[in-house]
């Protein structure tokens, strides 16, 4: 074949031939889109189907969306339900947080509404019959309803356990407090009691509240343990506290526990008060007062007044002991304490008044014995005060005259201790005449003691003056020797022996009274002269 035959063709050959090749396109043809799945056909509107989809979504399982083949929305329902379960479980006494529950309900309502709108014209997959789907949806609503019931039961059980835990903590608090002194543990006991009271008042039907009455027996015995140990004084306060417990548990039948502390408290009050009374402590009066007013008919109250009377008698015996002054003081204190005890029964009050009067009378009578003891112990200042007070308060008592003499001797002995070596007697007069003159412008009291004790006063000498110190040390100085002066004077009769004199001005103008010691012998006349320098002096 020639090149002309196969390589080239002229216009004449193209017109003459029946076969021709079309020209090549300038660009490739445009691409056609790939075929897609046909859209889901819309079904006729069906209200039953819409309601079925809504109800199925209300179960929280997203089944409405699943039957409508809306898998993403169904997964969203599953996620919301899972989140709710995560928040709600395990069951808590406070339940599901309100915001979470509200959001979940709003979500279910929205899912139901949207499911109804979509299901109105969308056929269901799997369940073709809408009534059957609706029935299934209604049946599935039992699941969340049952879940609510089960959750409430679980929540109630959680609440019960919480209350039991609270009860257990209160029990542990009582046990720990029982190992401490009541004053230290009192706050813990009150805290535990408040827990018991709250359980009974706020949760009366709970298992914990039903166990409170049984716990109270342990509470009472723990608080009142010191009584069983015989520590009556320490038992008073906790037993007093236990009597207030029924007020904290008004709705609890405590049975015999209401009166459980009474006899124990009465015993504790009596035993503690009796011990304090014997020991001379002041706490007994308040405790006997509490016993006589709180338990007036008790066996213990009947023993209170006799114990007081016995204490008075016992203290009276001490007046004859080594410390009579202490006994006098205890009797006076005892009388004052008895006056502070009041009883509800008139006969007990009268007996206590009699005990108080006896204590006072014995103390007054014992004052003389106290003064004698002070004198013999060398406490002359106290003896003077005691005997002066006694003589003033007992003007007609048989010991009054001697008490005055002891007071005189005690005053002299404060300046001349040797004067206090012998207790004065009631002896009077003697065979020796002693004249005491006052060469002083001051009125003076002359005290003397020895075989005979007494005192008298001398008026001041109107024409006399105080001597200078230089004059008194000048040789030949003799006071009371001026025949031209009328010296106030008094003559007394004294027995043989040593007599101690004390001169003191009536106006107490001198800090230190003047004193003199005279050894009197038979056959002599003695003169005692009082004069004034810077202090009062004497000479013979």
Account of the 3D structure:
With 540 residues, the chain is an alpha+beta fold. It has 4 domains: 47-140; 157-258, no CATH class; 265-377, no CATH class; 432-539, Sandwich (Immunoglobulin-like). The protein is built from 22 helices and 8 strands. A 4-stranded mixed β-sheet has the order 4-1-7-8, with no helix packed on it. A hairpin with an 8-residue loop joins β5 and β6. The protein is rod-shaped, with a radius of gyration of 59 Å. It starts with a helix and ends with a strand. 33% of the residues are buried.
Q: Quickly count the domains.
A: 4
The proportion of strand residues reads: 5-15%
Q: What distance separates the N and C termini?
A: 203 Å
- Fraction of residues in H or I helices: 55-70%
Taking Cα atoms only, what radius of gyration do you get, to the nearest Å? 59 Å
The residue-averaged pLDDT reads 82
Strand arrangement, largest sheet? 4-1-7-8
Return the structural class: alpha+beta
Principal-axis shape: rod-shaped
Strand count = 8
- Low-pLDDT segments, ≥5 res: 1-19, 31-38, 536-540
Topology as H/E string?
HHHHHHHHHHHHHHHHHHHHHEEEHEEEEE
Largest sheet: 4 strands, mixed
**Count of helices?**
22
Compose a concise summary of this entry.
It is built from 22 helices and 8 strands. It is of the alpha+beta class.
Question: How is this fold's topology laid out?
Answer:
Elements: H1 3-6, H2 11-16, H3 47-58, H4 63-67, H5 71-88, H6 98-119, H7 130-140, H8 142-177, H9 182-202, H10 207-223, H11 225-228, H12 232-242, H13 245-248, H14 260-279, H15 284-294, H16 299-302, H17 304-317, H18 324-339, H19 346-376, H20 380-393, H21 400-415, E1 432-439, E2 444-449, E3 454-458, H22 469-472, E4 489-494, E5 497-505, E6 514-520, E7 526-532, E8 536-539
Parallel strand pairs: 1-7
Antiparallel strand pairs: 1-4, 2-3, 2-5, 5-6, 7-8
């Amino acid at each position: 074949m020639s090149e002309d035959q196969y390589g080239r063709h002229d216009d004449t050959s193209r017109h003459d031939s029946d076969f021709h090749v079309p020209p090549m396109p300038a660009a490739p043809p445009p691409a056609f889109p790939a075929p897609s799945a046909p859209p889901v056909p819309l079904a006729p509107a069906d209200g039953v189907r819409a309601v079925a989809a809504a109800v199925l979504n209300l179960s929280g399982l997203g089944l409405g969306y699943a039957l409508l083949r809306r898998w993403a929305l169904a997964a969203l329902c599953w996620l919301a339900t899972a989140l709710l379960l995560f928040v709600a479980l395990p069951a808590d006494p406070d339940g599901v947080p309100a915001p979470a529950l509200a959001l979940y309900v709003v979500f279910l309502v929205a899912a139901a509404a949207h499911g109804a709108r979509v299901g109105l014209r969308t056929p269901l997959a799997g369940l073709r019959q809408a009534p059957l789907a609706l029935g299934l949806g209604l049946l599935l609503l039992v699941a969340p309803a049952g879940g609510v019931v089960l959750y409430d039961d679980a929540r109630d059980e959680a609440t019960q356990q919480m209350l039991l835990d609270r009860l257990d903590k209160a029990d542990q608090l009582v046990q720990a407090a029982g190992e401490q002194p009541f004053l230290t543990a009192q706050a813990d006991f009150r805290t535990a009691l408040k827990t018991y009271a709250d359980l009974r008042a706020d949760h009366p039907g709970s298992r914990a509240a039903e166990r409170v009455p049984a716990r109270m027996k342990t509470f009472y015995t723990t608080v009142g343990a010191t009584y069983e140990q015989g520590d009556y004084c320490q038992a008073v306060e906790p037993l007093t506290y236990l009597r207030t417990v029924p007020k904290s548990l008004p709705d609890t039948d405590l049975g015999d526990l209401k009166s459980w502390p009474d006899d124990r408290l009465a015993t504790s009050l009596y035993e503690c008060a009796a011990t304090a009374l014997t020991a001379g402590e002041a706490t007994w009066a308040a405790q006997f007062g509490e016993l006589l007013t709180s338990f007036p008919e008790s066996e213990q109250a009947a023993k209170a007044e006799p114990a007081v009377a016995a204490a008075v008698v016992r203290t009276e015996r001490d007046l004859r002991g080594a410390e009579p002054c202490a006994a006098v003081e205890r009797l006076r204190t005892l009388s004052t304490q008895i006056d502070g005890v009041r009883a509800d029964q008139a006969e007990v009050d009268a007996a206590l008044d009699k005990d108080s009067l006896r204590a006072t009378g014995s103390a007054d009578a014992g004052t003389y014995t106290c003064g004698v003891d002070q004198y013999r112990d060398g406490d002359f200042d106290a003896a003077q005060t005691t005997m002066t007070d006694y003589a003033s308060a007992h003007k007609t008592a048989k010991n009054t005259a001697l008490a005055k003499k002891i007071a005189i001797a005690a005053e002299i002995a404060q300046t001349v201790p040797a004067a206090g070596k012998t207790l004065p007697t009631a002896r009077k007069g003697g065979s020796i005449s002693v004249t005491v003159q006052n060469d002083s412008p001051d009125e003076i009291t002359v005290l003397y003691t020895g075989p005979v004790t007494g005192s008298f006063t001398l008026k001041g000498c109107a024409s006399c003056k105080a001597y200078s110190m230089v004059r008194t040390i000048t040789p030949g100085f003799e006071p009371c020797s001026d025949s031209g002066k009328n010296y106030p004077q008094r003559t007394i009769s004294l027995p043989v022996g040593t007599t101690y004199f004390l001169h003191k001005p009536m106006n107490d103008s001198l800090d230190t009274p003047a004193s003199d010691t005279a050894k009197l012998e038979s056959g002599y006349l003695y003169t005692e002269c009082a004069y004034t320098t810077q202090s009062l002096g004497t000479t013979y």
